[in-house]
Amino acid sequence: LSLGLAPSNSAHGLVEQALGADWERNPASESACAFRHADGTLLAVRISAAKPSWVTRKPCGARWDIGRRADADPAEAAEIHVFAHHPVWDEPSARDPMQWRFHVVAGRMLPGRRTLSLPAVAMLAARIGPVDLGPAIERLHRTSRPTGGGPIASVT
């Protein structure tokens, strides 16, 4: 396969290939955060496809559930979100890395709603291909690391 990318069964697999050695799959299986960095940074992978696995007669618009709820556990909030979009309608192959498009967004930039459309995500981050995924995640990781120092004291 070109560009050193191996076929993968999912966008999660492509993201995993792009991550450095300090990232691992998040052991909290119920978590929306698929990966955890050694420093505690959480990364969520959100997937949308033009031709979903269920039968449909026309391409689906790209939309992601970001699950922003008032009752959400703050400990489960990812600092980095990778929005993966598979736009191919005719002859799609999720295993072909070059058919995927990605947007890497800081969690603090996400609006307080439950879903995001492709145009909304595109306003938050540029579209990149799988080859640029690792560097984009690393750039955002450098600015999104958890402080680990406990709560910030307020000045009164």
- Output the helix-strand order: HEEEEEEEHH
Count of helical stretches: 3
Radius of gyration: 16 Å
Shape: globular
Q: What structural category do the secondary elements indicate?
A: alpha+beta
In this structure, how is the largest beta sheet organized? 5 strands, mixed
Mean pLDDT figure = 76
Query: Could you name the ranges where pLDDT drops below 50 across 5 or more consecutive residues?
Result: 148-156
Strand content: 15-25%
What is the terminal separation in angstroms?
Answer: 59 Å
E-strand count:
7
Strand order of the largest sheet: 1-2-3-5-6
Task: Describe this entry's structure for a reader.
By secondary structure, the protein is an alpha+beta fold. The chain has helices at residues 11-18, 118-124, 133-144, and strands spanning 23-25, 33-37, 42-49, 63-65, 80-86, 101-106, 115-117. The strands form two sheets. It has a five-stranded mixed β-sheet, with helices on both faces. It has a two-stranded antiparallel ribbon with strand order 4-7. The model is unreliable at 148-156 (pLDDT under 50).
Chain-wise SSE layout:
Layout (H helix, E strand, L loop, with lengths): L10 H8 L4 E3 L7 E5 L4 E8 L13 E3 L14 E7 L14 E6 L8 E3 H7 L8 H12 L12
